[in-house]
Amino acid sequence: MKKAFLASMLAAACVSATYAVAQTPVTTNNGAAAQGPQLSADEYTAYQAVITATDPAAKATAAEAFLTKFPQSSVKSTVLEQLVAGYAGSNNVPKTLESADKLLQVDPNNIRALALETSLLKAQGDSATDPAAKQSAYDKAADAASRGLKATKPTAVADADWAAIQKQVTPYFYSAIGIDALTKKDSAGAIAAYTSELKAVDVAATTQPGPVLQDTYFLGQAYYTATPPDYLNCTFFATRTAIYAPDQFKATFQPLATYCYKKFHGAEDGYDAVKASAKDNLFPPADFAGSVKPAPTPADQATTVFEADKKEDPTLAKTNIADREFVITNGTTEQAEAEFAPIKDKEVKLTGKVVSIADTALTLAVSDDAKQASPMVADVSVTLTEAPKTAPVVGADVTVVGTMASYTQKPLMLTMTGGAIETKAAAKPAAATHRAAPARKR
To answer: Which region is the signal sequence (predicted)?
Structure first.
């Protein structure tokens, strides 16, 4: 359930970053009215070859030639931008990243280069199958993204243009930081990043198949993997993703939503109201938490079981072992003492599976929860009066008779002394007259 779904599932509608560059106006040294950098005739001709090239590969070639011939040019930054654009237009990812690195060495706050590096490195992480390579790519993408979020506006860029650039690239930055945190199991970091991403986009973008809807699901995952899990917020964001996902992918996202809802609420009733809220709201509304009733806690369930046991038999002598163990483990100290008192210092017969045996020390898994745990856990410890001639193997069913001496609540352990393993099959007991142990969600 915790495993992230394949990023390619929504790839058909994913938005890809574009790289656009401005051209620096230049003149030759003999220009009458010099504006911008003045270049020699040869440098000017080489520069014009770069900025006028329409074929991306030709642009990259011209830019490489310019930088080789004029490494200290006053328009080096602009030509490096053209170099990046040429390689990006040619779909040459390694060269695009290499040239973007060169550009960032001379212009560390170039937000377009940082956005492009973020996008390409994140894509490499998405497609990597080796965990180390995936994390390395995500780390680099997150680093570029963090730098991009801190980039300051160049003096030559108008406020409106800068705001437009930021609106376009900010979601990419937060998306990269989010997936990097999520793969590192940094749920808090992922939650912060994905929340910021959703706040940075138009609401309409969150209802269409694409990277934002994909990250809405990842936000739900981050809440699920938090410590402790936030099942209610997991429910909301996973449900919203399932609602707006294409029909063929709804079954991919819905299980997490259903799982988290049942973990929080305890049943599936009332889920339609959750779906309606998630459909109409990007974030949980103020009254959302109060509208979903939490499932009873183990302590609540223990109180219910304890009261039912007392109603059936005020002495609690007839309580079945499942109820007794559940109340001892999850109830109050007083409830645990009351459940244990009827069997304390009494001879008790129990059947369970062998967890371990060494000489006269035997541990058993008696309750269903103890037996079904993986690995199986012991909830009864028995000190035998003598070591068995043939020790039972781990996992074998055995019946022991002994005196119930003590218990610990967490982790649960009932301790018996003077124990003996029955070697003959016990007679089938008469049907119990008291109620069966209620089904409970552990």
So the answer is: 1-22
